[in-house]
Amino acid sequence: MQRPPLDRAQRLALLTDMLLIRAFEDRVTQLAHEQGRLPGMQITCHGQEAAAAGVVRALTPEDVVVTNHRGHGHLLARGVDPNALMAEIMGRRDGLNRGKSGTLHLADPSRNVLMTSTVVGAAPPLAVGAAFAHRYRGEKAATCVFFGDGAAAEGSVHEAMNLAGVWKLPVLFVCESNCWAGAQAHREHCPIGRIADRAASYGMPGEAVDGNDVEAVHEAALDLLEGRRAGHGPALLECRTYRMHGHGEHDPQHYVDKAELAAWAGRDPIVRYAEVLRRDGLLDAVEPLAVHASGIVDAAVAFADASPYPPPGEALEHVYANPIAREV
User: Fold this and answer.
1) Which residue among 58, 153, 211, 225 is buried most deeply as judged by most CB within 10 Å?
2) Distance (Å, whole) CA 325 – CA 328
């Protein structure tokens, strides 16, 4: 559909989101390689910033986000406090979830970020439940769920899409198709080129976009989300992008062809968009915005370092709706 072009503030917000995500993930990478700084596996979204910023900026506050293990960018674009996010990743008491979730099970109910599931393919069924809740309550809202092309092969994802199609639920399935499932290339685990082509099998619209073009992602997400909120059932958006780091920061990705990696580096979504904004006379230089993003991340690390670890006595707090040994 035709809609007014994005104004200067909206376009700069997309760039600012991507710069913050990149700066945050760069620092997570750095900390992951420092002895004793971060607990557990760290999985980043380097190269996929346009998909996160473009889709999440299209959401309303009433919409719900369900994400996966590569979800830092989704939370930052949603407006989650970088201080609390970094503290959570570092396992600190002042973290987003009081140090209990770490990087792989993040949630921020105040921003309608319902949950993160690190189980591959587990997020879409959870999102279907959230979308059912929208319809049950009569809400004009949608649930947006992120997963990768590797997860798209899981039976749980097919079941979620099938049920959403049967019940015409307001859920937008967003596949960040980043060419890799762990150490397997797309051609090794997927018999078709475009995940979006599967949408017709479930009676839903499917669209594939250049996942490194933030405005193309944003426009597609705006259109598809509008239909979901209007009661037109589910949809599938495939953002075709590239995972620029290994599966996690423990993975040196020796299996990746260096020429392929270099080619995708030449399509960096931040560099591309900054050039577009300069060409359109909306941006003189990206450096001041990048410096500002780095400052936000510096402050987040300082905040997390100053936060204590949670005491053992808090282990069961905020875990159960009806805490153990307490009568209902």
Assistant:
1) 211
2) 9
